[in-house]
Every structure is written in structure tokens, then in C-alpha cells.
Design a protein that fits this description.
With about 350 residues, this protein is of the alpha+beta class. The protein is about 60% helix and about 20% strand. The strands form 3 sheets. The chain has a 3-stranded antiparallel beta sheet with strand order 3-2-5.
Length: about 350
């Protein structure tokens, strides 16, 4: 038997028992063929006595208008004119398009929303006798549940929590359709269309959010750059101060070492001079050295400038040497250890006077 065309299916409705009794037999048979499962959109087959039930199909059989059994897939035997196939259901998962409808959110925004419902028949008996039109009933239930769930949340949360909406709608449909032999597997929101003014406001809000994020990113970049520059300057100054401190420490250590070395050299020279003075003919050599330094000093003064101030007895080198030696003698007399040995000093003085003469 051929399937009904879609327009005929949508207009077909089961007749009441009183109306069925008033129709002729041929019209009754035609009507019974048209009383198909609106969910699966299939017509009922004739009962020649032997029928073949396809896989994933469920045929509901009535005996004298009373429910008898559900035929499983395979070859089955029926009694003609006594038993008839009243309902045919497909046990496959089917997708039902939920028409677009208007719902109001919690913040009083009217939106147009539609979706897709995925359902399947789990109990052919309940699907046949639990509800008049399973397709229409589950579609209406999905629409009312969707309006109820949308009214609990705001517009912004509706776009963010579509998955939560889908889960809540599925659970509500399953709770209500348990007596219909239908199970809702999932529900997917297809389109959410807010009013034009709301869309314009949302676009402006999105653009403002993007500008805000751009400004925040720019300010954070400038902040990080200023922090990096200040940190670099700080580290540079710290390193420069540490370098200057280390340089001064090194210079101080160098100056101290130089002073110490100079003092040691001076002390060593003094010891050598003292040793030389205490040796034989040391006073004569000292007098000669003083005379040479005296002459060289006047020579340097004469070369340094055009005007030279000299003492009145500049030519009397002997008197200058004698004066230096008297200072030395005074030093020796002030030192008891040196005064205990006058012999060498007197000999050095005599030798120096002879040398000067």
C-alpha cells in the first residue's frame, strides 16, 4: 500500500467510533487506512492473513476494536476481518522541526526562537493509546517548555546558556511524555532572533566592549613599558653606583698600597742613609752631596724665571754646608746613641772642611 502524501497526512484525523459506524464499509476501510501514525506518517496495511513486519517497525493489532498485541519484525499471521493493524510506528529516531515562536525573557525582551527535537517511540502501546496525536503533542510540549525556560533567564544569559536550556527542555519533555511511549533524546535551539532595536543595541554593546578591551590592552602595554623603562633605569643606576663604589675602593686600595710602598721605600732609604753616615768618610760624602744639591737648586731657580731672589752669601757654599752640618750635629746631640760616638762625627766635620777648602 502506498504512503499518503504530506498534505493528506497533515489533514488526516482519526474519526470517532460513532462516525465510523455511520460510514459505509468501503469508506470505513479507506478511513482506517488514513488513520495512520502521525508520528511516523505511515498508513496502516491491509490484513490478508499473512503480513511481514519490517525491521524497526511496530504494528499495533486490534481484535474487534480492542487492543490485542504489538507485532514484532518478521512474518506474522493475522485473522482477516477479525484482527486489523490499527497503528504503525517507526522505532527509529526522528527529527521534528519545532516552529518558530515568540518568547519573553526575564528582562522583558521578546525574542523569536525555533529548534529541532530528536525523539523516538519506545512503547508502541502507549504511543497509540496514550495520546491522540504524538507529533502534535510533543511539538506543543517542546514549545511551551521552551517558553517557560526562556522566561527564567535574561537575554544575555540565554545566548550563553543554550546548552543548559537544551538539557532543561529535554528533561521537561521526558517527564511529561513518559505516558505517551515517546522519549526525547535531545533538543537543539536553532535560531534566536531578538528584535531589531535589541540587535542594534547588542551590536553597539559589542563594539563598545571591543573598544574597551582595546583601550585596556593599550594602557596595559604602556604601563608595562613604563615599568620596564623605570626598572631598567633603576638597575642601571644601581649598577653604576656599585661600579663607582668598587672603583673608589680599588683607588683607595691602590693609594694605600702606594703610600705604604712609598713609606717603605723612604724608610729603607733613610736606613741606607743612616748606614752610610755611620760608615767611614760618610760625613765628607754627605757634605759633598749637600753642596751639589745647593748648586743644583740655584740652577733650577735661575732656569725657571727671569727674576731670582738669592741670599746675600749665595756664593759661600762652605757656610751653607757648615750650617747643614751644624743641624746634623744638633740632631746627633739630641740622640744619646749617636752622641756616644763623637769620633766619627768630628772626623767627618774635619774631612768636610778640608774638602770645602
Amino acid at each position: 500500500h502506498r504512503a499518503l502524501k504530506p498534505p493528506e497526512i497533515m489533514l488526516a484525523r482519526p474519526l470517532g467510533r460513532a462516525a465510523s459506524r455511520r460510514l459505509p464499509n468501503a469508506a470505513l476501510r479507506t478511513t482506517q487506512r488514513h488513520v495512520s501514525n502521525y508520528f511516523g506518517r505511515m498508513s496502516t496495511p491491509w490484513n490478508p492473513g499473512i503480513v511481514v513486519v519490517p525491521q524497526q517497525m511496530a504494528w499495533v493489532v486490534e481484535t474487534f476494536g480492542r487492543y490485542d498485541k504489538v507485532l514484532e519484525p518478521g512474518l506474522r499471521f493475522l485473522i482477516p476481518l477479525v484482527q486489523r493493524v490499527s497503528y504503525v510506528f517507526s522505532l527509529k529516531e526522528e527529527a521534528i522541526s519545532v516552529p518558530s515562536q515568540t518568547a519573553i525573557t526575564r528582562d522583558n525582551v521578546s525574542v523569536s526562537i525555533d529548534g529541532v527535537l530528536f525523539v523516538k517511540v519506545t512503547d508502541a502501546y502507549r504511543a497509540a493509546y496514550g495520546v491522540e496525536d504524538p507529533h502534535f503533542a510533543v511539538t506543543q510540549l517542546a514549545q511551551t517548555t521552551m517558553r517557560s525556560e526562556i522566561g527564567k533567564i535574561t537575554l544575555d544569559r540565554m545566548f550563553e546558556e543554550r546548552e543548559v536550556l537544551n538539557v532543561n527542555i529535554v528533561s521537561s519533555i521526558n517527564a511529561a511524555a513518559a505516558d505517551w511511549g515517546i522519549q526525547c533524546l535531545r533538543y537543539e535551539i536553532r535560531d534566536i532572533t531578538p528584535p531589531r532595536a535589541i540587535r542594534a543595541a547588542m551590536e553597539m554593546q559589542a563594539e563598545a566592549e571591543r573598544r574597551k578591551r582595546a583601550l585596556v590592552l593599550d594602557s596595559e602595554g604602556e604601563k608595562d613599558a613604563e615599568i620596564n623603562i623605570a626598572t631598567g633605569k633603576k638597575m642601571s643606576r644601581v649598577l653604576a653606583s656599585e661600579a663607582s663604589m668598587q672603583e673608589r675602593i680599588n683607588l683607595g686600595k691602590g693609594d694605600a698600597a702606594a703610600v705604604e710602598a712609598h713609606a717603605q721605600a723612604t724608610a729603607e732609604a733613610t736606613r741606607l742613609v743612616a748606614g752610610a753616615l755611620g760608615a767611614r768618610d760618610g760625613h765628607a760624602a754627605t757634605s759633598l752631596r749637600l753642596a751639589e744639591q745647593y748648586v743644583n737648586a740655584f740652577k733650577g731657580i735661575a732656569q725657571a724665571g727671569s727674576t731670582v731672589v738669592v741670599p746675600a752669601n749665595a756664593a759661600d757654599v762652605g757656610s751653607m754646608v757648615a750650617q747643614a752640618m751644624s743641624i746634623y750635629k744638633h740632631t746627633l746631640h739630641s740622640n744619646p746613641a749617636a752622641a756616644a760616638a763623637p769620633g766619627p762625627a768630628e772626623r767627618a766635620e774635619a774631612t768636610g772642611s778640608t774638602a770645602l777648602e
